[in-house]
Specification:
One of its GO terms (cellular component) is plasma membrane. Part of the ABC transporter FtsEX involved in cellular division. It is a multi-pass membrane protein. The protein is of the alpha+beta class. The protein has two domains: 3-53 and 169-303, no CATH class; 55-164, 2-Layer Sandwich (Alpha-Beta Plaits). Helices cover 68% and strands 8% of the residues. It contains nine helices and four strands. The protein starts with a helix and ends with a helix.
Length: 304
């Protein structure tokens, strides 16, 4: 098989069907951008889980004069009850599981609440006496929070023992849903790209049907006839894949690292290096998608 002749046929096919080639490039670009974004989003979720779960605290909320949950009966926790809870935290039973803890009184809780909800109308409705005092506990192993719950939940003056990871689970469930949505959209776009590539190849073959007939008459093999068409689809898809890889890297560089890291400095985000690792995956996916779709399309056409 003469490589020069094959490449010449590829070039002619791309020029003759330029509008369809541009369509393939754009659809491949959009679909693989979704694929790359979905991969990085899943990586980001994994990083955030590791980062925040390790920093998640257990809150031991104490009774106020307004609460009835736990052992509370609309009576605020007394100094003796608070001392008992602290003694439990420092006991030989719980101390081996605790990395550190601190006590937050109502004034501190109120100050933190005002900082957290600054600008929100709810901030003006809350007074210090409405907020519970609490012990905030960092565990050596956050997975062992149930030990703290079992030991402290029934003590007098304790309203509840809350593992912050329960809130994180809800957030990550939403992020996972977003990731799955991106994967679903990417899958639909890849199907559309495959169908468009197949249609483009069949139209290209139809426009050169007289040439194909002559090639058959002179004894050209099916492989020789098919190869230029397959390469046309692969070239168009590779261009779209390169653009998708560039878009993914640009999103991480300018938006994630350029904006999010400044807005949320305490959070670990994916880096440009992570995005660069995704680029070969997109190139491989685009090339394989085009090769399979083009080969199937031209093989079916030649059988007609």
């Amino acid at each position: 098989m003469r490589l020069g002749l094959v490449l010449s046929e590829v070039g002619q096919g791309l020029r003759r069907n330029l509008s369809m080639v541009v369509s393939v490039v754009l659809v491949t670009f959009i679909s693989l951008t979704f694929v790359g974004t979905a991969i990085l989003l899943q990586s980001q979720i994994t990083q955030m889980k590791t980062y925040w779960y390790d920093r998640a605290q257990v809150a031991v909320y104490l009774c106020t004069e307004y609460t009835t949950a736990g052992s509370c009966d609309q009576q605020a926790a007394t100094d003796d009850q608070i001392a008992v809870v602290e003694a439990q935290l420092e006991s030989e039973t719980l101390a081996p599981f605790i990395d550190a803890y601190y006590f937050e009184d109502q004034e501190q809780a109120y100050a933190n609440f005002q900082d957290q909800f600054e600008g929100n109308a709810i901030a003006a409705l809350v007074t210090p006496d409405l907020l519970p005092e609490a012990f905030w506990v960092n565990l050596i192993d956050p997975e062992q929070s149930q030990i703290l719950t079992d030991a402290l939940a029934g003590l007098a003056g304790v309203e509840s023992v809350v593992d912050q990871r329960s809130y994180l689970d809800q957030i990550f469930a939403i992020l996972n849903s977003a990731s799955l949505t991106a994967v679903g959209i990417a899958a639909l776009m890849l199907v559309a790209a495959a169908l468009l590539i197949a249609t483009t190849i069949r139209l290209s073959a139809f426009s050169r049907r007289r040439e194909l007939g002559i090639m058959r008459l002179v004894g050209a093999s099916n492989r020789f006839i098919q190869t230029p068409f397959v390469l046309e689809g692969v070239v168009a898809a590779i261009i779209g894949s390169v653009l998708a890889g560039g878009a993914v890297v640009a999103i991480v560089h300018f938006f994630v690292q350029g904006y999010l890291t400044q807005t949320l400095p305490g959070t670990s985000f994916v880096t440009v290096d992570d995005a660069l690792l995704v680029v070969p995956v997109l190139l491989l996916a685009g090339g394989l998608l085009a090769a399979v779709a083009s080969n199937v399309a031209i093989s079916r056409y030649l059988r007609v």
